[in-house]
Predict the structure.
Amino acid sequence: MADINVTAKTTGKTADLTGRSSSSGSQSIAAGEPAWDIIELLFFAYRDFVGDADEVLAKFSFGRAHHRVLHFVNRNPGMKVAELLDILKITKQSLGRVLKQLVDQGYVLQKEGANDRRQRLLYVTSKGEALAMKLAGLQTERIARALKDTGPGTHDTARRFLTAMLDAEGRDRVLRLIARADHARRPRA
Amino acid sequence: MADINVTAKTTGKTADLTGRSSSSGSQSIAAGEPAWDIIELLFFAYRDFVGDADEVLAKFSFGRAHHRVLHFVNRNPGMKVAELLDILKITKQSLGRVLKQLVDQGYVLQKEGANDRRQRLLYVTSKGEALAMKLAGLQTERIARALKDTGPGTHDTARRFLTAMLDAEGRDRVLRLIARADHARRPRA
DNA sequence: CGAAATATGTCAACATGGCTGACATAAATG
DNA sequence: CATTTATGTCAGCCATGTTGACATATTTCG
């Protein structure tokens, strides 16, 4: 749990930009100095990260919007439409468009709520789960490689860094969502 | 340069998800187990990260496309249109649309290349620089806060992790771009 | 019970920012 | 001089976001 993380180790396979920036005193970012490195690395890393999935999705004529819906439904089986809207922060019209396609093509199904019959609870089908897991697998490969290349303890540091990057207001909601999904295991699909 | 990073310190202000995952052995991701935490944190963190800029841009009736152009031109004054296209990986038609608006509204200007008069070298104006720096400042605030909250040594770890997340093929190009921009200081604007 | 609130869906229209394809111009190059 | 290169531009399509207005079924509440 308490992890001693000695990061003297370098990636060792790429032109190294850490040398320059640490020699210019990157520790904590001198007030007023933009964190150019992190800003740009986030841009390029995120693009490559989502790019993995994009290629596969293209074969299904799906886009990132479909991926996001499929991902969260897979992770939170039985979730309400309203919850999904709240997570994605898009309008129901935008969601409706891609959700309809996912349902029509048999990746997602909707069941009436047992208690509240107005609700249309969302589940992935086995076909939907397969695709969601394939996409998650691709992204996990990249993450696992990166964590391995960056050294032990990085998973924890990355998690804490990314958590700290979240808006403070929504942070707990995000963390609760992740924690909840980690427990909600396949009530059925 | 060699940084000893003791990460026993926790963020300490949010519901903590690291406890659960470290207790389930998050070290290096058990083969086949999707890295749900990093996948979802990347999604939410990136959204919040770009959200900072989005709010400001909206006041100028600009979008993320304008931001990206302005950012890279600010960072690489005198860059060629072709270089920018290559960095952004969009078509010249897409670039042309936003670039024209930035030029028309006085954020970016184009000068004939001294050697090659076909080139239209790109520079930010002082107005453009001001906006670019404002946006970078907002994002840097978030990053600096996150790095501070996550503890010393995180800047280096974050940089190395994000670098390792890049496609291996394009990695050196990205690192060279960042390193080059760090040196290219205002040939004028 | 009946009115109001809630969960969801849908139609229409519009904006942004990707894309392809075709074509135009000026300047460099061989 | 012919070709290639750097850039711009017109026209139209697609994906995915938006607003606003309604429709329907169901639950909730006075």
User: Anything to note?
Assistant: Residues 80-82, 92-93, 96, 100, 113, 116, 118-120 of chain B lie near DNA strand D (CB under 10 Å from a C1'). The beta strands of chain B are 4-6, 108-112, 120-124.
